[in-house]
Specification:
131 residues, mainly alpha, 5 helices
Amino acid sequence: MPRSCNRIANVSPFRRTHTPRLNALGDGETVMTELLHLWMPILVATFVCFILSTMLWTAVPLHDGDFDEATDHEGLNKALADLGLKPGHQYLFPFSRDKKHMSTPEFKERYEAGPWGLVRLCRGKANYART
């Protein structure tokens, strides 16, 4: 009887069984591909995915409506200067560092009334990409 048939006949009925595939030698042993043989397909697939995702990100205008222009630039700049906000910081409003103050009725009323926001002031001028 061939060697592969003996292996199938001696398998317990309580174990998972499979029919072994014959490799190039025909001995029924499982053959695995080494990772070193797959490095080129892995690199090519990675490169193709990167290029396609870049093209898709560039072509689809997903974030065009994320920002709106301020209607009164001079008034906004004057208000920020009057508040004395420092460049390079972020300001959240309404905000309180003290948890006890956050549970007060005044803070809760201010929080419910809104507006809510985040102001981030850059240290230098923004570097906008040319489009």
